[in-house]
């Protein structure tokens, strides 16, 4: 009965009303005592809802992070607030919509006549909306500009493509971090299992504290790129994109890099067959990167 009451109350309130306590009423099990909402009668409204959300998702006991519905709703709320802010600027600025924006019929007629100026303005605005088609088109343009810049500066085109994966269940440093977080949470049994290197326990903690796993992966990747990739592989310039696996949902990173030694590219482009190209890459991998295939392959298949 209490849950139904909270759901009805939250549904009748507006999150844009700075005097409403939507989260306290919708998620009472996360906000005991009715404190900690975006708006509080004593504290008032928080200055930055993004910092407020980050604080809750990193709360020491992990209860906000583990509530999937809460996480999805907060992310959706932040995205809509950001989109509305950008849309308001777009609407009021005379250099974008103007004083008399075209109707849908007029816009369709412009497109039929090959006039995409207004559409391009809409695409430009939508670049800031993460995940949208315009956002990824903007990233494609950014990557193309990055390649053109380095070619013009004499650094050459990208010479390497690499993927960095997250081995969250195998990193000792991350395990120590999980032990610390579980200890703060008060789960002594989980701490003991982690200290005993229990694989299932590590998987459980990694799913419980995904935000910290992602942060750890990004810091580890930056160190790897600034040391191993730069010094051992000779890659000084790179452009990377973070993705999340559709199945396991874990973070990984795709990277385009520009190496110092480009001599092998001449041999690669001179190669006429796939076998010749493979030999060029094999020679580069063994002589420059000190990489060898340590897996026996059955060539009969």
Description:
The protein has 14 helices and five strands. The protein is flat, with a radius of gyration of 26 Å. The N terminus is likely disordered. The protein starts with a helix and ends in a 14-residue tail after the last helix. Strand 1 and strand 2 form a beta hairpin. A three-stranded antiparallel sheet has the order 3-5-4, with helices on one face. Helix 7 packs across helix 8, helix 9 packs antiparallel against helix 10 and helix 13 runs antiparallel to helix 14. The longest helix has 25 residues. With 301 residues, it is mainly α.
State the gist of this model.
It is built from 14 helices and five strands. It is flat. With 301 residues, the protein is mostly helical.
Give the ordered list of helices and strands: HHEEHHHHHHEHHHHEEHH
Strand order of the largest sheet: 3-5-4
Strand content: 5-15%
**Number of DSSP-assigned strands:** 5
Key phrases:
301 residues, mainly alpha, three-stranded antiparallel β-sheet, two-stranded antiparallel ribbon, 14 helices, 5 strands, flat, disordered N terminus
Q: What layout of secondary structure does this protein have?
A:
Layout lengths: L1 H11 L9 H5 L12 E2 L3 E2 L3 H9 L5 H4 L1 H25 L11 H9 L4 H10 L6 H20 L7 E6 L6 H14 L2 H8 L3 H10 L1 H23 L2 E10 L6 E9 L3 H8 L3 H14 L14
Antiparallel strand pairs: 1-2, 3-5, 4-5
Helix pairs in contact: 7-8, 9-10, 13-14
């Amino acid at each position: 009965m209490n849950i139904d009451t909270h759901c009805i109350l939250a549904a009748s309130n507006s999150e844009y009303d700075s005097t409403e306590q939507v989260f306290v009423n919708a998620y009472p099990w996360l906000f005991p005592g009715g404190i900690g909402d975006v708006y509080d009668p004593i504290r008032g409204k928080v200055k930055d809802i993004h910092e407020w959300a980050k604080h809750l998702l990193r709360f020491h006991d992990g209860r906000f992070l583990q509530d999937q519905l809460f996480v999805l709703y907060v992310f959706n709320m932040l995205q809509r607030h950001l989109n509305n802010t950008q849309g308001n600027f777009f609407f009021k600025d005379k250099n974008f919509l103007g004083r008399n924006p075209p109707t849908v019929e007029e816009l369709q007629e412009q497109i039929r006549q090959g006039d995409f100026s207004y559409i391009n303005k809409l695409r430009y605005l939508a670049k800031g909306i993460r995940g949208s088609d315009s956002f990824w088109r903007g990233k494609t343009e950014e990557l193309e500009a990055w390649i053109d810049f380095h070619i013009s500066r004499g650094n050459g085109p990208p010479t390497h493509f690499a993927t960095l994966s997250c081995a969250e269940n195998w990193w000792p440093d991350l395990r120590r971090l999980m032990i610390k977080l579980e200890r703060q949470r008060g789960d002594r049994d989980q701490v003991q299992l982690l200290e005993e290197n229990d694989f299932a326990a590590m998987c459980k903690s990694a799913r419980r504290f995904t935000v910290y796993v992602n942060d750890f992966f990004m810091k580890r990747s930056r160190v790897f790129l600034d040391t191993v990739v730069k010094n051992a592989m000779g890659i000084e310039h790179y452009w990377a994109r973070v993705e999340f696996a559709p199945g396991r949902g874990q973070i990984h990173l795709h990277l385009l890099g520009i190496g110092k030694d480009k001599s092998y590219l001449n041999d690669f482009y001179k190669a006429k067959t796939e076998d010749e190209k493979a030999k060029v890459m094999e020679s580069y991998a063994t002589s420059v990167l000190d990489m060898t295939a340590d897996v026996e392959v059955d060539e009969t298949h």
